[in-house]
From TrEMBL:
Pfam families (alphabetical): tRNA_U5-meth_tr
Comp. bias intervals (Polar residues): 40-52
Name of the protein in question: 23S rRNA (Uracil(1939)-C(5))-methyltransferase RlmD
Top enzyme class: transferase
Gene designation per UniProt: rlmD
Protein family membership: Belongs to the class I-like SAM-binding methyltransferase superfamily. RNA M5U methyltransferase family.
Signal peptide: none
Length: 485
């Protein structure tokens, strides 16, 4: 397995010694007068306690009045002062000061870490992150088999091929761009995110500069005024192709020509620019309306030796280095001999199915997103694949129809969203009786739930492989092989 024990990356070697000083720029320490020891203050109270374990999202657990409470940025075994506030039955606890630090604590390499919330584990050494994720998967998979050691990443930074920057005005009405703070719509101005592809941050900073020097205003969610909401950037890590999607509140793009020209002059490496119009008030980044301003409107990248065209609205795995390991394992678990009929459910742009097609008799892909299905069909042509068909629709309904028609599937590979699959899909798998099911998941919790259903309905989990697709965050990917009993 790819262990990163010898990894000399940014936060290795910066472990702190045990000390009673506060650590880094912890959020709870912000704005508090140094050295002052607050005690009871209204419903707030400072408590000294010791962390007993982790929650599944990487927070520390402390016991308060017999109740388990989660504290961000606290590590098991650490003694700390925490600020506790109570409102009815609801207890909120924030880390104020670490008194006795864990050997696993490191200085977070990102200066925005405590304000941003996009990453949750940067205060842990890479080895500890690995242990934490392994334990999360081991714990969830206890009813099945012992998971394999997690596949980690040599350089667990700069991996995201997709970035998303939000623009707004600060209190001085200056243009800012960055990420939303956790659980809020407050923009944290950020110039560089350590898990983004560095090129995408350079481009986002250029766009911020163009906004500052033009009359274009960022969109204001409260007033509904302004134009530019977000910028989505997708980078083909192998091809070097770059897509910039300007997400605006209206299709009226004044100064469009000049904006596009200025951006292209600054970044000739951009291969396509799109305008996406999002008039919605929910948290969806992209709206339905899309217009290509420059280039072909898609980018292409290479994964596992095949070329894939990717649209703005299609899903594409965000960490291609780890995706190759994940897909390699999924294909190995499928045990294809060249004859099998394979279902690639929740197939996105067809990546897994097209890679499997080289060793299968026939591939049937199903996906809800229309643009992704178009990409999948184009991708099968682009790679001269003649034994794959892709269909648009709900995977559950599609499988019900397949089962009702008495169709055959030897292997079902599924890779649903975080919410997991559904009973329609899983009960149809049980009816179709494929020899093997390969379940790829970005949420082992829903994966375990669905595998429990499959175990009750004729399958046995034989192998589980966790993969760290999202270093520095609490998220973990898992791929499992189930065989017909
Ligand atoms: C985690 S992604 C996996 C995509 C692809 N397998 C890959 O590796 O790139 C999940 C995909 O499921 C699609 N999806 C979500 N709900 C769906 C449903 N009910 N039926 C079919 N596809 C769905 C999403 O659009 C997305 O493309």
């Amino acid at each position: 397995m790819n262990k990163r024990k010898n990894n000399k990356n940014r936060n290795q070697g910066k472990k702190r010694n045990r000390t009673d000083k506060p650590y880094g720029k912890q959020p709870a320490a912000k704005g508090k007068p140094k050295g002052k020891r607050p005690s009871n203050k209204g419903s707030q109270q400072t408590v000294t306690t010791t962390c007993s374990g982790f929650t599944s999202d990487g927070k520390g657990i402390v016991q308060l009045d017999g109740q388990e409470v989660a504290v961000e940025h606290l590590l098991p075994g650490e003694k700390a002062e925490i600020l506790v506030s109570k409102s009815g039955k609801f207890v909120n606890a924030k880390l104020k000061r670490v008194i006795d630090a864990s050997k696993d604590r490191v200085e977070p390499p990102c200066v925005y870490y405590y304000a941003c919330g996009g990453c949750q584990l940067q205060h842990m050494s890479n080895d500890k992150q690995e242990d934490f994720k392994q334990n999360v998967v081991d714990e969830l998979m206890k009813p099945f088999v012992k998971p394999e050691p997690i596949m980690t990443m040599e350089h667990p930074y700069d991996y995201r091929n997709k970035s998303h920057t939000t623009f707004g005005l600060n209190q001085k009405r200056q243009v800012i761009g960055g990420l939303y703070a956790q659980h809020s719509h407050e923009i944290i101005p950020i110039d560089k995110c350590l898990i983004h592809d560095p090129k995408s941050d350079e481009i986002a900073n250029t766009i911020k500069g163009i906004l500052k020097s033009s009359k274009m205003q960022p969109y204001n969610e409260d007033t509904g005024q302004g134009f530019l909401r977000h910028v989505l950037i997708k980078v083909g890590k192998v091809s070097g192709e770059i897509m910039v999607v300007l997400v605006a509140a209206s299709p009226e793009f004044k100064g469009k020509k000049k904006f596009v020209q200025t951006l292209r002059n600054a970044h000739p490496e951009i291969t396509t620019i799109l305008l996406n119009v999002n008039t919605r008030s929910d948290s969806m980044v992209l709206g339905d309306q899309e217009k290509v301003l420059f280039g072909k409107g898609t980018i292409t990248d290479t994964l596992c030796g095949l070329k894939f065209e990717i649209s703005a609205k299609s899903f594409y795995q965000i960490n291609p280095v780890q995706t190759e390991k994940l897909y390699g394992k999924a294909i190995e678990m499928a045990e294809l001999t060249g004859k099998e009929t394979v279902v690639d459910a929740y197939c996105g742009i067809g990546t897994i199915g097209l890679i499997a097609s080289r060793r299968a008799g026939k591939v049937i892909g199903v996906e809800l997103n229309k643009d992704a299905v178009k990409d999948a069909i184009r991708n099968s042509k682009r790679n001269d694949v003649t034994n794959a068909r892709f269909y648009q629709g709900d995977a559950g309904e599609f499988m019900v129809q397949m089962a009702n028609r008495g169709e055959k599937a030897d292997v079902v590979i599924l890779d649903p969203p975080r919410s997991g699959s559904d009973e329609a899909f899983l009960s149809s798998v049980a009816k179709l009786k494929p020899k093997r099911v390969v379940y790829v998941s970005c949420n082992p919790e829903t994966q375990a739930r669905d595998m429990k259903y499959l175990e009750k309905n004729g399958y046995k989990v034989e192998e589980i492989q966790p993969v760290d697709m999202f270093p520095q965050t609490f998220h973990v990917e898992s791929v499992a092989k189930l065989v017909r009993k």
